[in-house]
Amino acid sequence: MHEIEDKKVEEIMSNKLISTTPETTTDDAIKLMVENQIRHLAVMDNEKLVGVISMRDIFYSINYLSNN
After folding, report:
1. Residue 32 near residue 18, CB atoms below 8 Å
2. What is the residue-level pLDDT of the chain in tens, covering all 68 positions?
3. Among residues 38, 41, 44, 61, which one has the least CA distance to residue 52?
Protein backbone atom coordinates (compact mmCIF):
# COMPACT_ATOMS: atom_id res chain seq x y z
CA MET A 1 0.00 0.00 0.00
CA HIS A 2 1.31 3.43 -0.97
CA GLU A 3 1.71 6.15 1.58
CA ILE A 4 -0.04 9.41 0.71
CA GLU A 5 3.33 11.19 0.58
CA ASP A 6 4.37 8.94 -2.32
CA LYS A 7 1.30 9.65 -4.44
CA LYS A 8 1.30 12.21 -7.22
CA VAL A 9 -1.27 14.98 -7.07
CA GLU A 10 -2.92 13.65 -10.24
CA GLU A 11 -3.73 10.43 -8.40
CA ILE A 12 -5.83 12.15 -5.73
CA MET A 13 -7.06 15.40 -7.31
CA SER A 14 -10.60 16.08 -8.46
CA ASN A 15 -10.99 15.86 -12.21
CA LYS A 16 -14.30 17.70 -12.42
CA LEU A 17 -13.69 21.44 -12.17
CA ILE A 18 -16.68 23.47 -11.06
CA SER A 19 -16.22 27.12 -11.89
CA THR A 20 -17.98 30.44 -12.03
CA THR A 21 -17.24 33.97 -13.22
CA PRO A 22 -16.36 37.13 -11.28
CA GLU A 23 -19.85 38.48 -12.05
CA THR A 24 -21.65 35.60 -10.30
CA THR A 25 -23.62 36.62 -7.22
CA THR A 26 -22.63 35.24 -3.86
CA ASP A 27 -26.02 33.54 -3.63
CA ASP A 28 -25.45 31.72 -6.93
CA ALA A 29 -21.92 30.73 -5.87
CA ILE A 30 -23.31 29.22 -2.66
CA LYS A 31 -25.92 27.30 -4.65
CA LEU A 32 -23.21 25.89 -6.95
CA MET A 33 -21.14 24.79 -3.98
CA VAL A 34 -24.07 23.15 -2.22
CA GLU A 35 -25.38 21.44 -5.37
CA ASN A 36 -21.94 20.03 -6.15
CA GLN A 37 -20.97 19.33 -2.53
CA ILE A 38 -17.78 21.37 -2.78
CA ARG A 39 -16.19 23.97 -0.51
CA HIS A 40 -14.10 25.77 -3.13
CA LEU A 41 -15.13 27.28 -6.44
CA ALA A 42 -12.76 28.30 -9.24
CA VAL A 43 -13.40 31.81 -10.55
CA MET A 44 -12.67 31.98 -14.26
CA ASP A 45 -12.50 34.95 -16.63
CA ASN A 46 -12.78 33.41 -20.09
CA GLU A 47 -10.37 30.49 -19.72
CA LYS A 48 -8.08 32.16 -17.18
CA LEU A 49 -8.21 31.31 -13.49
CA VAL A 50 -8.53 34.62 -11.65
CA GLY A 51 -9.29 33.31 -8.18
CA VAL A 52 -10.85 30.77 -5.89
CA ILE A 53 -13.71 31.46 -3.52
CA SER A 54 -14.39 29.20 -0.56
CA MET A 55 -17.28 28.70 1.81
CA ARG A 56 -15.01 30.17 4.49
CA ASP A 57 -14.58 33.35 2.41
CA ILE A 58 -18.34 33.67 2.12
CA PHE A 59 -19.00 32.98 5.81
CA TYR A 60 -16.38 35.53 6.87
CA SER A 61 -17.91 38.11 4.54
CA ILE A 62 -21.42 37.45 5.85
CA ASN A 63 -20.18 37.69 9.44
CA TYR A 64 -18.26 40.91 8.70
CA LEU A 65 -21.21 42.54 6.96
CA SER A 66 -23.66 41.56 9.68
CA ASN A 67 -21.41 43.09 12.37
CA ASN A 68 -21.02 46.44 10.60
Report:
1. yes
2. 568 888 999 988 888 899 999 999 999 999 999 999 999 999 999 999 999 999 999 999 888 878 87
3. 41
